[in-house]
Amino acid sequence: MKNRTRAAALAKSAAVLLTATLALTACGGTGASTETAQGGVLRIGTTTDVVQFAPLNNVSISDQYIMNQLYPDLFTLEIDGTLSPHLAESYTVSDDGMVIDIVLSDEFSWSDGEPITADDVKFTLDRFVSDKLLHGITIASNLASAEVTSPTELSVTMKSASYGWAQDLARSMKVLPMHVFADVPNLAEYPIDAHEDAWVSGGSFTLTGITKGQSYTFERNEGYPLSADGNEAVEGVEFRIYPDLNTMQLALQSGDLDLAAPSIPSSAVTSLASQPNIEVVETTEALNYSKLTFNASSAPLDDVVVRQVISGLIDTDAILTSVLQDRGTHPVGPVLPVYTDYQPDIEEWSFTADEARTMMTDAGYTDADGDDYFDGIDLKLLCDQGNANHAKSAQIVRDNLATAGITVSLACSERATSLAAAKTGDFDLYIHKLNQINSPATSLALQYSSANTSGLYYNYVVDAEMDSLIATAAAATTEADNIADTQAAAAYIHENAYVLPLYVEALSNAYNSSRFTGYLPSGSETFSMVNPYSLSQVVPAT
């Protein structure tokens, strides 16, 4: 049985906020206004236009900054990966693990005055299946039915019992307005930028204007019940588009901008935090994961010894220090560190160059020409060159492997090109990043199941044992079994060196405190400090 109450969860949230984040406040001068801030429009910076306006059908982080304002979450995802009540007050899983009973708050309304009810939740679940909306891929896969039992209650039945699936629904479910979209044949093909009558929000603010290439404007949703005292001074929100992060940071420093939506690069944190009125909030237990994935479909990476050698040669501590300035953590296995209960009992791979050469030689690899490099090995390392941290990490990986006679050729390119190469398996090694809001068991399935229903499996090999362990974890019906089975799957993935975790990067969110304060951090980049609940807690600075 699983039951979460609003008061208990919100109390836990407050404690986590105090212990898991570090505010870096400007010390380079007072810089603060001597007048009490009076409120006004909250100005938030982003770097790109919305590409996908179809509701709950976008995966781009910058798209979600805008679109997530409209469709409320059942629960709020806290910085430690736990949940607090939001639109839903509680959820309970039946003893047989087949049914989830959800109880909604009766205080929420859409911005047009219509109450948000269980019918909206059922409608959204049904559209996840019929319209194949990207936000609902995981949920739709195991959804049998949803039955509304009262305006604030519904029962969701699974195709097969799964503790992890129940977690996924609670963690990732957003809700659409049925009365707005009921007559739309396919929401995946319904961009709301062309339909102003669909600009209806269940979040704290609702969309009122789109100026492509410039801004997105929002006004208050008076039907949102969780706004803090004083939040009424935030008359509206304007997302402003900047050509790059540097320009955005300058606007933040000058006071032309109140909050930057994207996380600030580690290299810029110290200098930015020293500016008057600028505060940087670091969330260390973030829900992101940069990793080195091995294409195990062909030689030499079809050899587990080679994968283990490479994993043990790479100096992840050096990557943390030189690339992230120690603003991050290094996970040992494929489960995010924030999920402490799910960590398997494993040890990090570590070999000296001499040890690695001996292992390679014992495995049959040779250096016949005596050039200190093993014959016939030239590994293509793929990454997105637009991600400076990944590009720098790739250079360290190349140099580390060279010490043991393993040749690496860098093939980093712009994001679309590198992603296309990854999707076709045109690489040996791939540095990439995944933001994870799913349960640990589901996250493993999305990344390492050879069925590849998510399109995120890049090992390109069918490992029946790994698939079986992942399936067992997904099918666990109790928390204890889910934890134990997830640990077993994670240990197998680690021991077979299908992936080398490089780092979990701390999220550094910056704002100018001269006008507003009260933002709440999140461990997820897609939530950032611009999620509807965070914006509902913003108040004028004093």
UniProtKB/TrEMBL annotation:
One Pfam family cited in the UniProt record for this chain: SBP_bac_5
Signal peptide: 1-25
Domain Solute-binding protein family: 83-452
Keyword tags: Signal, Transport
One term of GO molecular function: peptide transmembrane transporter activity
Subcellular location(s) of the protein: Cell envelope
Entry annotated with the keyword Signal: yes
Biological process per Gene Ontology, one example term: peptide transport
UniProt key word Chloroplast: no
TM annotation in the entry: none
InterPro entries in UniProt: Peptide/Ni-bd, SBP_5, SBP_5_dom
SUPFAM superfamilies: Periplasmic binding protein-like II (SSF53850)
Gene Ontology terms: cellular component: ATP-binding cassette (ABC) transporter complex; cell envelope; periplasmic space
Family the entry assigns: Belongs to the bacterial solute-binding protein 5 family.
Protein name: ABC transporter substrate-binding protein
Organism of provenance: Cryobacterium melibiosiphilum
